[in-house]
């Protein structure tokens, strides 16, 4: 192997992104590649933060799903682009969208579930909204499993979209039908209103 000089640069990489370039004096270099990398890391530790440059905030990426699920959870009404509200039908296992004003059956508890959410009806016994891979949405009497969990996404316009376990989006048809669809468009964006 060849010797390096103090003019040559050693690039340190984390997660395939360039983080810093470290200039090592010739006295800290050797012919062994592992030794070079180790010494470069040690030299980086001695650098001031301003010399290293901006680094991505890893905590932001790790906590993002949990932050969204916490932000969307609570006592909520789910309002569609059609000015209709998601309703749990009182004596049936169906959900649909009904026109305003919202009534008791349009109230939901959106519960934070480790980065996802579950839509819990206010009825006793507790029922949850479930998405089936065929595109149906209904209520089930169960502790939330994969099919009852939704990934929340906050849209640029302040609305929310919810993706099912199957990768499909909660949708409100103009005729009041609740379903899941492949593509996210206007009908898959919802306002979350508080209720008490």
From TrEMBL:
Coiled-coil residues: none
GO biological process: actin filament polymerization
Gene3D superfamilies named among the record's database cross-references: 2.80.10.50
Gene Ontology cellular-component annotations: actin cytoskeleton
Domain of life: Eukaryota
Record CDD domains: beta-trefoil_FSCN-like
InterPro entries the UniProt entry points to: Actin-crosslinking, Hisactophilin
GO terms assigned for molecular function: actin filament binding
Entry-linked PANTHER family: HISACTOPHILIN-1-RELATED, IG-LIKE DOMAIN-CONTAINING PROTEIN-RELATED
Name under which the protein is recorded: Collagen_bind_2 domain-containing protein
């Amino acid at each position: 192997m060849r010797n390096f000089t103090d003019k040559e640069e050693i690039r340190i990489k984390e997660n395939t992104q360039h983080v810093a370039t470290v200039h090592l004096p010739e006295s800290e270099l050797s012919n062994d590649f592992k030794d070079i990398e180790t010494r470069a890391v040690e030299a980086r530790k001695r650098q001031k933060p301003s010399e290293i440059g901006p680094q991505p905030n890893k905590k932001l990426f790790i906590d993002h799903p949990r932050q969204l699920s916490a932000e969307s959870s609570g006592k909520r009404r789910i309002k569609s682009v059609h000015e209709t509200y998601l309703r749990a039908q009182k004596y049936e296992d169906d959900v649909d969208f009904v026109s305003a004003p919202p009534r008791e059956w349009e109230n939901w508890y959106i519960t934070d579930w480790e980065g996802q959410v579950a839509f819990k009806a206010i009825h006793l016994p507790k029922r949850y909204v479930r998405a089936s891979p065929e595109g149906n949405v209904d209520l089930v009497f169960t502790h939330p499993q994969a099919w009852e969990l939704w990934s929340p996404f906050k849209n640029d316009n302040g609305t929310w979209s919810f993706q099912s376990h199957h990768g499909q989006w909660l949708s409100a048809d103009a005729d009041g039908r609740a379903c899941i669809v492949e593509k996210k468009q206007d009908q898959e964006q919802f306002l979350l209103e508080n209720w008490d």
